[in-house]
Amino acid sequence: MSHESRPHDSRPHTARPHDSRPHTARPGVSREVRLAAVPDGLPRPEHFEVAEAPLPEPAPGQALVRNRFFHVFAALRTLIGGLQGAPLPPLRPGDTLIGPAVGEVVSAPDGAALRPGDLVLHGQGWREYAAVPVERCVPLGDALPDPAAHLSKGWIAYAALALNARVRPGDTVFVSGGAGAVGSMAGQIARLLGARRVVGGTGSPEKAARMLDELGYDAVVLRGGAPTAEQLAEAAPDGIDVHLDNSGGEQLRGALAAARPDARFVLVGALSGQLSERGTGGSAPVELDTYQLILKRVTVRGLSAPDDPEEQARWTERFGGWLRSGEIVFPHVRVPGIDQAPRALHEVFTGRHFGAVLVEV
């Protein structure tokens, strides 16, 4: 299977979100995606602008990086909504969006380990050029066969399953949001960690078919169909041992109903709230039967992905080996051109794509 999504998902867009004229940045200018207005409901392309800015002048200790790819992720809805206390700061009109990016070093300070031409991972996506502190640039090397794979959410899925839930051989695992950036990796990783049966959740019959055909899921629970508890009773009649929750809401309730004694739940995302047409994406309330938590001794924890370079290096080495052997794939869509980024973000919010979405700058 190709590392890229099918042509339906990855075909180039012909419409530009803000300007139908060809647009090439002038020398000394960098383009970036800014929040133009705070929306009432889900953000749409018109709530953003692709603006020109002077080419960044690196301060002492900074490298100038030309971005090649950046990741388009649903959690930006929460930042746009202004939630305080999130891992990343809220966005206000005029702010440039942020997020993981892979770029090429243009210049670096004297004495730095970085050299022009090096590929690095950093957090200043959504722009063509970035001035990044050297200590926040992660050199990529050749651990992965495709530099874009460094933007995979495989590390999040691995941390949730291997380090938090501690998946064991023979476990039955349920992954909600199984066709998204995290879920499309999580089903495969659960299998590689020894899970006996892996069930995924999604809201699209087309995505469900691909999850079964391409990602190795044994069964799929369709959001919007019969209650999740009923579908899980059929898909996992012996119950579930591990739940990686990307969605919250009704699927989390259904997972609790299907939980076996001593089940381990890891909460990674809250798409039921983040992608709601109402509110600001900063709340995802759900009613759980706490008596069942007690009776079944279910452990529920929020994701803890260690900020440990050695642990992350071990993951990257393992991931690279799995990619080269074909034991795992990185499902993703590449959207060409920064001008298409606002449209790509809206498509992520509305669930159009399968796997991760990357903008190729």
From TrEMBL:
Q: Domain Enoyl reductase (ER), which positions?
A: 41-359
What SUPFAM superfamilies does its record include?
GroES-like (SSF50129), NAD(P)-binding Rossmann-fold domains (SSF51735)
User: Highest taxon of the source?
Assistant: Bacteria
**Known Pfam families for this protein?**
ADH_N_2, ADH_zinc_N
* Annotated GO MF terms: oxidoreductase activity
Where is the region Disordered?
Answer: 1-32
Q: Where is the composition biased (Basic and acidic residues)?
A: 1-22
- Which PANTHER family does the entry mention? QUINONE OXIDOREDUCTASE-LIKE PROTEIN 2 (PTHR43677:SF4), SHORT-CHAIN DEHYDROGENASE/REDUCTASE (PTHR43677)
This protein's name: Enoyl reductase (ER) domain-containing protein
